[in-house]
Design brief:
The protein is of the alpha+beta class and 123 residues long. It is built from five helices and five strands. The strands form two sheets. The protein has a three-stranded antiparallel beta sheet. It has a two-stranded antiparallel sheet with strand order 1-2. The longest helix is centred in the N-terminal third of the chain and has 17 residues, at 21-37.
Length: 123
């Protein structure tokens, strides 16, 4: 189950295709979590990542530094996802995904007993 973050209120007037911005954020978060769930955490998490803008894909990519084992970006945030967000919302959206990939920060914010963010809903 995906819980809507209070920081991304439903925005009925801003639509991306069939979805409004809040729905698109939820879909992106689910896709991100499903991709990570398919990999052993010790393989995915790292203290270093490459964050870059890919003009061809019109996306922000978060890439694992070991390109041999992870040839594809771990996270792809399309410009359409960011289009309806202000700077603060986009910064939070991007930052949350990066924080969850760094072991020491993940340990600080994710309860290992429940897999939930401390003080919030599901990861």
């Amino acid at each position: 189950m995906v819980r809507r973050s209070k920081s991304f209120p439903r925005q009925e007037k801003t639509r991306i295709g069939r979805f409004n911005v809040a729905e698109k954020c939820d879909i992106s978060a689910v896709y991100f979590l499903l991709n990570l769930a398919a990999m052993p955490p010790t393989d995915v998490f790292s203290d270093e990542f490459v964050v870059r803008w890919d003009a061809e894909r019109s996306s922000l990519l978060i890439v694992h530094p070991d390109r041999r084992r992870f040839p594809q970006a771990l996270v792809q945030i399309r410009s359409e996802t960011l289009a309806g967000m202000d700077f603060q919302a986009a910064s939070q959206f991007i930052g949350e995904r990066l924080v969850l990939l760094i072991p020491a920060l993940r340990e600080r914010y994710v309860d290992p007993n429940t897999g939930l963010l401390r003080g919030h809903g599901e990861v």
